[in-house]
Structures are given as C-alpha cells and as structure tokens.
Amino acid sequence: QVQLVESGGGLVQPGGSLSVSCAASGTLFPINDMGWYRQAPGKQRELVASITRGGSKNYADSVKDRFIISRDNTKNTVNLQMDSLKPEDTAVYYCNVHINMFGRGPYAYWGQGTQVTVSS
After folding, report:
1. Which phi and psi (to 5°) does residue 115 adopt?
2. Are 3 and 110 in contact (CB under 8 A)?
3. In this predicted model, what pLDDT tens digit does every residue of 3-29 receive, in sequence order?
C-alpha cells in the first residue's frame, strides 16, 4: 500500500517563506512524476509544481520564480520551497505521485493535505 506523508506548512506572513515535504513509502516500483497541488476554499484543485524522475520541472505560472520543487529518488521524497508568499497562496497543499506497476498505469496517489496560510 503506497502511503504519502506530508509535513511542513503552517502560517506565514506575506513575503515570507515556507516549505512542505512529502515522503512516499510502500512502493516496490520507481516513482515517476511527483508533484504538489493545492486547493483553496471554493476553488478547484490546481497543479502547483511537478518534477519527473529525471528532474524536469514544471510550474504553474502563478508560482514561477517564487517556488522551487525538488526530489530525492533514493528517499522517495519531494519538497516544495515557497518564497515570497502571497495571501492568494493560501490553500491546502497535496502531494501527488505517479507509479507504474507491472507495466500498467501510471497510478496516482495523494497525500492527506497540509494547510498553508499566508496572512498578516
């Protein structure tokens, strides 16, 4: 059973920094893409950033030049460093991974979510 455990998040003032991390366990197969999504109240879940196993990164336009995603393939972890945070970054942040198993998939797995609040 694949499990994703998120950590980090919390309350920060506008302009501040915060990081969220996610550790995946329970998989016998390599993890393909890893990423972070977020969902603000009353809005749809949206992609924030993703990173392939090879290290190629993709960012939402709204976070480019402010957020950095990274991963450690040996530990099956993914981290999102968030700088210059804005109130509109307030949301629940979800870790997401994709795994191919027995030549099928990819299968998507989600973390439980961690709250990030940007407020003075």
Report:
1. -80, 135
2. no
3. 999 999 999 999 999 999 999 999 989
Residue 32 in tokens: 């393909």
What DSSP string describes 10-62?
A: EEE-TT--EEEEEEEES-SS-EEEEEEEEE-TTS--EEEEEE-TT--EEE-TT
Read off the pLDDT of residues 94-108 as tens digits, 9 standing for 90 and up: 999 999 888 888 999
DSSP-derived 3-state class of residue 110: strand
Nearest alpha-carbon partner for 60 in 71, 50, 45, 72: 50
Distances (CA, A) of 110 to 49, 83, 84, 87, 97: 14, 24, 26, 24, 7
57-59 vs 46-51, strand pairing mode: antiparallel
